Amino acid sequence: MGIRQYSILLLSVCIYLPILEATSPNIVFILADDLGWNDVGFHGSEIKTPNLDKLAKNGVQLDNYYVQPLCTPSRNQLMTGKYQIHTGMQHQIIWPCQPYCVPLEEKLLPELLRAAGYATHMVGKWHLGMFLKECLPTRRGFDSFFGYLTGSEDYYTHHRCYHISELNVTRCALDLREGEEVAPGYDGMYSTHLFTQRATDLIHNHDHKKPLFLYLAFQAVHAPLQVPERYTAPYSFIKDKQRRLFAGMVSAMDEAVGNVTEALMAHNLWNNTVLIFSSDNGGQTLEGGSNWPLRGRKWSLWEGGVRGVGLVNSPLLEKPGVTSRELIHITDWLPTLLNLAKGSPERTTSLDGFDVWKTISKGTTSPRLEILHNIDPLYVDIAPCTGDPAQSLLPDLTHKPRPVTSRVNQSDGFDVHIHAAIRYRQWKLLTGYPGCPLWFPKPGSTSSLQSSPPCPTKEAAVRLYNIEQDPEERDEVSALNPTTVDFLLRRLHHYQSGSKPIIFPDDDPKCDPGLSGAWGPWA
Ligand SMILES: *[C@@H]1O[C@H](CO)[C@@H](O)[C@H](O)[C@H]1NC(C)=O
Ligand SMILES: *[C@@H]1O[C@H](CO)[C@@H](O)[C@H](O)[C@H]1NC(C)=O
Ligand SMILES: *[C@@H]1O[C@H](CO)[C@@H](O)[C@H](O)[C@H]1NC(C)=O
Ligand SMILES: *[C@@H]1O[C@H](CO)[C@@H](O)[C@H](O)[C@H]1NC(C)=O
Hints:
By secondary structure, the chain is an alpha/beta fold. The chain has 11 helices and 18 strands. Helix 5 packs parallel to helix 7 (241-266). The termini are far apart.
């Protein structure tokens, strides 16, 4: 090759490289809290979600998409790309005074994206631990953070109360931070507005030289049921007060999603953005949510607890306007987004997630055949299992339930007393008590609560369902498919043998937000 050709080649390499860098897509991940299967318009809900419906319709709707049954676990899996059993966080959620967080040796998604050149911002709910400063979002890969650290709080005062049973005291304090600093001064501002405003400000101020990663984890639509009246006004036809308030909260969140997408378009970011919308777990039927016609609810391994609401919208989708029936799990986002970002997963070890971008963008077959929903030998259901909130006391979610000691004995294969579930292709196997087993009626219908025909209560049991034919988990078919049952029990045993010891420490009495004026690191 002559000198002239060589320098042309060099020149084109020099020009080409910066363009390559600039094309890494912006990633906007919107996570809704406690949004049920039947709580969005595109699933047929009576709740109106025009913005989400539009994104689902001309994007890719994820119809066979799974999350975890609780807040901390889903967020943990999103951030690590690993199953709960592989981080020691298979049991429950992180309560405000528990001294632990996602193990510090884990490299979280924002840290990996930052290494790939991204500006990384988080707005909203963290819930991945905060007893040490090293656990905070800004120490785990986010350039900026505006939001709260615990699992729930008041939407206007941003205060959280928590009862420490060891001391028999209830502590209440603000939980809102700007970076690592306490953020007073937002009293009276509804969190859906506050967080949307912050998200659109970040979009407005974004320096286009870097790709953007924005993680917007709404407080909506978790309890307490609070919303400005204008959002409930269109729902006077909903007689149930909880459902009406909940519907208003969903509408406010839908408006927020509209505002965020508009801001991306207005600032010329949209044409190179991948927007993902996901729920974190099933709806809480005691607090206005609905997973109809699916069985169970949040805190359970039934489909009502784990089948997620999900969609992807982006001008980069090669075949938009479709509903994907391919199996996708929340652990898949980390490798998928990292590959889109041309980032390097080399610092991550043994992921449970798969890169599903081709599946989403082009409609190819999902590389995922199996999902470990969870294995939790300490499982307890904290809420009353009944359909009528008036007949039961609402669960006191300011208290941490005490785990029971399990009867784990592995020498004989998988102990079917253990609360666990696994999916393989169309099959789902559940063992132990999966959580509240009821089918809650469609909101507004007069049909009463249906309990499971031979009501399997808390005794050990193995249940098998063909989810593709029977998504409502009505026909238990383990007796007809002994080979499948054996195979799935062996898979559970395999996973159980490789699980990390459970981290679930007692409350630390030293956790006193009174000292700093807010919930936050104390150790
Ligand atoms: C906890 O405190 C409350 C009031 O402060 C008291 O009524 C209750 O008996 C105490 N419970 C225990 C177990 O000490
Ligand atoms: C969306 O933007 C409009 C117009 O700025 C504003 O009035 C509304 O409060 C915003 N909605 C949310 C949920 O932030
Ligand atoms: C996106 O829009 C900007 C501004 O209009 C333009 O410069 C850029 O080339 C577009 N990128 C893509 C991938 O179309
Ligand atoms: C575990 O199971 C084995 C075989 O069934 C039995 O011999 C052993 O005593 C059990 N261990 C405990 C701690 O229950």
